[in-house]
Amino acid sequence: GIQVEQSPPDLILQEGANSTLRCNFSDSVNNLQWFHQNPWGQLINLFYIPSGTKQNGRLSATTVATERYSLLYISSSQTTDSGVYFCAGNNNAGNMLTFGGGTRLMVKP
Amino acid sequence: DTGVSQDPRHKITKRGQNVTFRCDPISEHNRLYWYRQTLGQGPEFLTYFQNEAQLEKSRLLSDRFSAERPKGSFSTLEIQRTEQGDSAMYLCASSLGSAQAFFGQGTRLTVV
C-alpha cells in the first residue's frame, strides 16, 4: 500500500488567519480524500480530489497527482475550524484508504 | 438520515468479555470498510467487504476479531476475549465501488 505523510502535525492560528495543510503520498493515487474529524470522532468529508482543484466556501483543495501531493487551504479561519484534518488515499494495489497522521489545528479567538 | 450508522456509540466492557458492533452502510453502497483509530493516530484499515464477500483483511485483525456482512447489507464486527489494547474508536465506512467513502460516527470501545 501507499504511505501518506501530513504536515504540519500541529498548527495554532489566530482567528481570521489563512493556512495551508499538506499531504504527501509515496505512490500515485486514484482516490484522495480530505476529512475533518469533529470532537466526537466522526470523520466529515471535505473533498474527494484525486486531481485538480476544488473549492467549498472558505476551504479549497488542490491535488497534483504527478507530483504526489495535495494541499488543503483554509482561509479566514474560525474557531469552529479547530480539530484534526486527515488526508487519505488509495491506489490500484489496495482498495482501502490509507490515512496520514493528521494535522491538529487550533484556532484561537 | 441516510448516512452510515454505527451502534453502539460507546461501549465499556471488562477484559475478557466479547463485544459486537454493528454498521449500517448507505443503502446503495456495495463496499463496507472497518477501521480502528487509537488516540492521536490516524485511522488504520482492518477489513473490507464488497457485497457479502470479505475481500481483504489487515494483519491488525487478529484471530480474536471477526467481521461479517450477511446478505451484503449491514455488517458486524466482533471482538472475542477483549484486551486493554483493544480500546479504540472503531470506524465504519461505505462507498459505491472505489468512489468517495463516507464514515459513520464510530463506536468508542473502552476495555477496563
What structural keywords apply?
heterodimer, A: 109 residues, mainly beta, B: 112 residues, seven-stranded mixed sheet, 11 strands, globular
In short:
The complex is a heterodimer of chains A (109) and B (112). Chain A is mostly beta strands. Chain A is built from no helices and eleven strands.
Roughly what fraction of the amino acids of chain B lie in strands?
over 45%
Which spans of chain B have pLDDT < 50 for at least 5 consecutive residues? none
Global shape of chain A: globular
- The radius of gyration computed from the alpha-carbon positions of chain A, rounded to a whole number of angstroms, is 13 Å
Order of helices and strands of chain B: EEEEEEEEEEE
Task: Report what the structure shows.
The complex is a heterodimer of chains A (109) and B (112). Chain A is mostly beta strands. Chain A is built from no helices and eleven strands. Chain A has strands at residues 4-7, 10-14, 19-25, 31-37, 43-48, 52-56, 59-64, 69-74, 83-90, 98-99, 103-108. In chain A, a hairpin with a 4-residue loop joins strand 7 and strand 8 (69-74). The model of chain A has no long low-confidence stretch (mean pLDDT 94). By secondary structure, chain B is an all-beta fold. Chain B contains no helices and eleven strands. Chain B has strands at 5-7, 10-13, 19-24, 31-37, 44-50, 53-57, 65-68, 75-79, 88-95, 102-103, 107-111. In chain B, strands 2, 4, 5, 6, 9, 10 and 11 form a seven-stranded mixed sheet that branches. A four-stranded antiparallel sheet of chain B has the order 1-3-8-7, with no helix packed on it. In chain B, a hairpin with a 6-residue loop joins strand 7 and strand 8 (75-79). Chain B is globular and about 40 Å long. Chain B starts with a strand and ends with a strand. The model of chain B has no long low-confidence stretch (mean pLDDT 95).
